[in-house]
Amino acid sequence: IAGITQAPTSQILAAGRRMTLRCTQDMRHNAMYWYRQDLGLGLRLIHYSNTAGTTGKGEVPDGYSVSRANTDDFPLTLASAVPSQTSVYFCASSPGQEADTQYFGPGTRLTVL
Amino acid sequence: GQNIDQPTEMTATEGAIVQINCTYQTSGFNGLFWYQQHAGEAPTFLSYNVLDGLEEKGRFSSFLSRSKGYSYLLLKELQMKDSASYLCAVRDRDYKLSFGAGTTVTVRA
What is the pLDDT of residue B1? Predict the structure, then answer.
């Protein structure tokens, strides 16, 4: 059982390019989340999905979009990357929004130049 | 929104006890979480408190006082592998987590 996988592991991207970070879980969890982690700021929620077919905005959604076509996949897209989006991105999932824990993927380190 | 404060760094000796404090201000409290994160790795779940009191799990314990907006994580019998960042997170009534910036604990021999 893989749990949560993210791809790519790391990426260097030119500003203005479009980029999709992939996240897949095999635990049949209903809820999924995208966070970014920056030094000194901690993890901040970008977007979330409580169940397939629904999404919502977190604390820092601008410049990002998500989709949830099925239970397993929750891709995060940067339509036109900017240097301030340089960060480590973590995907997480939980059985439901009310669950007492979230399980995190290994992260994607993204550098926008 | 949430305001979550925790110390930036702490250092302790192997075998000792360390207490990491977390204070929060929230518009709607629905649980407090502690996560451990080793450098370059994903956060992993340690504990969850929703009612006042102490939750004990082996060498780790977590305490919550909702009236004071205060929690602590207690790490006993410290081991070198406990060197990591410890993240305090508060869940709101919409079930969204807000994280503190994390406390880096360094365990010295």
Answer: 52
Return the SS3 of B80.
helix
Distance (Å) from the C-alpha of residue B30 to the closest C-alpha of chain A?
A: 9
Contact at 8 Å (CB) between A44 and A74? no
Question: Which of B104, B48, B70, B81 shows the shortest CA–CA distance to A102?
Answer: B48
Residue of B nearest to A48 (CA): B96
Residue A100 has pLDDT above 80, yes or no: no
- C-alpha A47/C-alpha A58 separation (Å) is 5
Residues of B in contact with A41 (CB under 8 A): 101
